[in-house]
Amino acid sequence: GLHPGTSLKNSIWSNNVSRNNTTDGFFFCLRVLQAVVEGNLFFRNRGHGMANLTDPDRYNILKANVCAENGQHGIEAARAIGNVIQGNILRNNSQEKPGKYAGIYLEEHRENDVTGNVFIDDQDRPTQKHKIISLNPSGENVIQEG
Prior knowledge:
By secondary structure, this protein is mainly β. It has strands at about 10-15, 15-20, 25, 35-40, 40-45, 50, 60-65, 65-70, 75-80, 85, 90, 100-105, 115, 120, 130-135, 140-145.
């Protein structure tokens, strides 16, 4: 999929389609700062729709993306700090192991705004049984399940 490189700053990733990859549709490398990831489709990737949004990545905006039918989480953000995850559509993810993965996954996270996201599972046999999994926050966050 798409892979912003180490220490990339002030980038814009918009109107892309990343599908059928053997791993993630979008993978944050180390120290990605102030990226805007908006209006993309991350579809049927074996891994996550968007992944590895983790410290030391900071102050990124993930907005109005569609993460659909991915093998694992729609958005994976373990140890995420100071990001906005807003207005995304998370649909029918967790295809690899139904019920294990969520639309959005957060762990040991702080200072994030996770609001206004839409969670859909309209399959005959639902796979995305969790909207948001939030484990062990390490500080204040604004999280709304939607």
